[in-house]
Design goal:
Blueprint lengths: L2 E4 L10 E6 L6 E2 L4 E6 L4 E5 L4 E6 L6 E2 L4 E6 L17 H9 L10 H9 L18 H11 L7 H4 L22 E4 L5 E4 L4 H16 L2 E9 L1 H18 L6 H14 L5 E4 L2 E4 L5 E3 L1 E3 L2 E3 L2 E2 L7 H17 L4 H4 L4 E5 L18 E5 L3 E7 L2 E15 L5 H16 L2 H5 L2
Parallel strand pairs: 14-18, 18-19
Antiparallel strand pairs: 1-8, 2-4, 2-7, 3-6, 4-5, 6-8, 9-10, 11-21, 12-13, 14-17, 15-16, 19-21, 20-21
Helix pairs in contact: 1-2, 7-8, 7-10
Length: about 425
């Protein structure tokens, strides 16, 4: 008995998704909960697992197709079992199909899938003349399409039957031609220089949409300051070995900035707020988004209730986010919500930039590259490891005085880390 593989219920605010890559092909043995195909949404890549142990029967929708929750994308057969013969109702069976099925009885036509049976009947084909490439010689839809192209003979059907198929050889996925992933378009100009046009990924399109939304719907201003990182660097050098041995996590800079941001957010709650219509929502919790680069683009997973987390908790969570961003296993819950964000362009060498708000948040802190610069201390010129900080904020809810004071608070906490423990 075949089992339908359906697109699972999608997270709230996600309308549809794109099938990115099938990991199994028809005839492959699968285990329950084993990932069959990746589903890319505008936020995360989800896995569609096998609903039971068995053998993958037919892939109904291939790579690159857009699907909705509940769509049937494949069939799964029980181990050692052939798919059932799905006989159409007598009133709906055209004479050509009935005759074709009767003539093909010697070729085990009952093992044909409904989609293959329909295609064979529509084009009046003899299954005995089609070579099957599926498990145990089963005929797949791709086999039928290849047979039709090789025959290059007109069919009794009108224009749809005469249209050339997009694939000249059987493909691993037996999805309809319209569902195939569009190939990059390369076109030389008059001078022979080549351009490549590729479709934007759903995540990249979503990033573009939200960045444009932030610039159009918020009054974004940015204030800057600089911080002497020597105290934090000295503290890390002194305790990093013991910290890693004790907690199993590397002591980085990010935990200091997260803790300093929480202290500043407590003092200036407007930066931790959001605008909802004509109301201002002041959040009584601190969920901080940490911008992470991934192969698919920038994602911002959320550290929740950061005021209740230790330095070790923060470092472990950020390391976990980084690893899961690379392998695409971040969940929708990881990326939903957030009251404030931090982005670190310094790891890529950025010296100064203006970060863009992550809607509907009202503030985002930008970290930059640490560089030795000449500073004046007590009348003496000394070299200090300095970092520029940037705070972009929504001027509709955050005044300039609050924004500047917020950034000064972060600077003071980092230049005297004892303030983070004493909360002064």
């Amino acid at each position: 008995m075949s089992i339908e593989v359906r697109v699972p219920t999608l997270p709230e605010s996600v309308a549809d998704g794109t099938l990115v890559s099938w990991h199994k092909q028809p005839g492959d043995t699968v285990q329950r909960d084993e990932n069959l195909v990746d589903l890319e949404t505008d936020k995360v890549v989800l896995e569609i697992p096998a609903p039971a142990d068995g053998v993958l029967g037919e892939i109904l929708i291939g790579d690159g197709a857009t699907v909705n929750a509940g769509d049937i994308i494949a069939t799964l057969m029980e181990a050692g079992e052939s798919p059932p013969a799905s006989q159409p109702a007598a009133a709906e069976t055209p004479p050509v199909q009935a005759a074709s099925e009767q003539a093909a009885s010697t070729t085990d036509i009952e093992n044909l899938s409904p989609a293959v049976r329909r295609l064979v009947a529509e084009h009046n084909l003899d299954p005995a003349k089609i070579t099957g490439s599926g498990r145990n010689g089963r005929i797949t839809k791709a086999d039928v399409l290849a047979h039709m192209e090789q025959a290059s003979a007109p069919t009794p059907e009108p224009a749809p039957a005469a249209e050339p198929t997009p694939a000249a050889t059987p493909a691993p996925s037996v999805a309809p031609p319209a569902a195939a992933k569009p190939a990059p378009i390369q076109k030389p100009d008059a001078k022979g220089r080549v351009e490549q046009r590729v479709p934007m990924t759903r995540l990249r399109a979503r990033i573009a949409e939200r960045l444009l939304q932030a610039q159009q719907n918020a009054a974004i201003l940015t204030t800057f300051n600089e911080v002497n990182m020597q105290p934090v660097m000295d503290l890390r050098a002194r305790y990093k070995t013991q910290f890693e041995k004790e907690h199993g996590a590397r002591l980085g800079f990010m935990s200091f900035f997260v803790k300093a941001s929480v202290e500043a957010l407590k003092r200036f709650p407007a930066v931790n707020g959001t605008i909802d219509g004509t109301d201002v929502i002041y959040h009584g919790y601190y969920d901080i988004g940490i911008a992470v680069s991934s192969p698919r683009g920038l994602v911002v997973p959320i550290l929740r209730d950061v005021d209740q987390m230790s330095f070790a908790d923060i470092e472990k969570a950020i390391a976990d986010f980084g690893a899961r961003a690379k392998d695409g296993s971040l969940s929708m819950d990881d990326l939903t919500g957030g009251t404030f964000s931090i982005t670190n362009g310094g790891i890529f060498g950025s010296l100064l930039s203006t970060p863009i708000l992550n809607p509907p948040q009202s503030g985002i802190l930008g970290m930059h590259k640490i560089m030795d610069r000449a500073m004046v201390e007590n009348g003496q010129i000394v070299a200090r490891p300095m970092m520029y900080l940037a705070l972009s904020y929504d001027h509709r809810i955050v005044d300039g005085r609050e924004a500047v004071s917020f950034l000064v608070t972060i600077k003071e906490c980092l230049e005297d880390p004892a303030r983070l423990l004493l909360q002064v």
